[in-house]
Amino acid sequence: MTVSAPSSNELQRRVTAAKMVTTDVTRRMICGGVAGMIAKTVTNPLERIKMLSQTGEGTKKASGRPSILGLYRDILQKEGILGLWAGNGANLLRVFPAKSVVFSCNDYYRALFSRILQTDQLPAPVSFLAGGLSGMTATAVTYPLDLARGRISGKLAVAKGQKVYRGIVQTILLTVREEGVAALFKGITPTILGALPYEGIKFGTVGAMERLFPEENSSVSTPVRKMIFGGMGGVMAGLITYPNDTVRRLLQLQGSRGNSSTYAGYWDCVRQTYRTHGISRFYHGLTINTIRMAPNTALQFYFYSLLKQWSDGLV
């Protein structure tokens, strides 16, 4: 049996198609990364307060929990106004690749499932699955950066100008030197497991809202619709997955400078935390996190949609 070689026109067509796919994926990744960086920078002061509250740093109220105002005061006294953006550099280095992967992979998985199911209107469970798979992929790729960001943002300076961790590169090198390479992956299991429901709920909520309120029946622009639905999805995801997020932060900080906590693993951390502090410990920082999540995810979806529309017009 003789197999004929493709003609030069056919080869050219395939090359052109491959270039178009590559260009489209690259554009989506850049749009996702930039959108994530904008959203993270705007909301970093709230992120810093949330993480310090989770890790138990700073001035505490009579209940034993750090107060939001007390944490702001501690940061300003010990680190100055720029302390509110401590960890933002590590955030941006992590967020760009993470959101690049999350948004572009979500688009890919949605397109894949649409072809399989032969429908453009995916059911909410399928939107959940697409988002969850995207989140797990991004987490696996960027985890050491997330750990470094957690250590920078999750510790207060000893005094003004004397930071425990000064930057992402220094944090990674210090962690490897003092704790070994494996320390860069502390807490990765709950992070990956948490990414499935978190991103799944976030994108699933957006997908469900888009089915309930079709674009053709709306006078609101696509970016604004995405912003509203994205904010709702972020709040829902944050509320449901917050206890898991607290556990992974505690695991990330164990063994770091100024932290004597040691856990044998995920469930040991859960047991020790519950036995020592009770169930409420898993929800420290939930209020500020809820306030943070709405604008953070809303801005992510808004700028991703806006930048994608803009880049489509350039092609």
Automatic annotation (TrEMBL):
Membrane-topology annotation of the record: Multi-pass membrane protein
GO BP annotations listed: transmembrane transport
Keywords, ordered alphabetically: Membrane, Repeat, Transmembrane, Transport
Cited InterPro entries: MCP (IPR002067), MCP_dom_sf (IPR023395), MCP_transmembrane (IPR018108)
Matching Pfam families: Mito_carr (PF00153)
Cell location: Membrane
Stretches forming Solcar repeats: 23-112, 126-212, 225-310
GO cellular component: a single term: membrane
PANTHER family in UniProt: SOLUTE CARRIER FAMILY 25
Family: Belongs to the mitochondrial carrier (TC 2.A.29) family.
This protein's name: Solute carrier family 25 (Mitochondrial phosphate transporter), member 23/24/25/41
Organism the protein comes from: Fistulifera solaris (Oleaginous diatom)
Upper classification of the organism: Eukaryota, Sar, Stramenopiles, Ochrophyta, Bacillariophyta
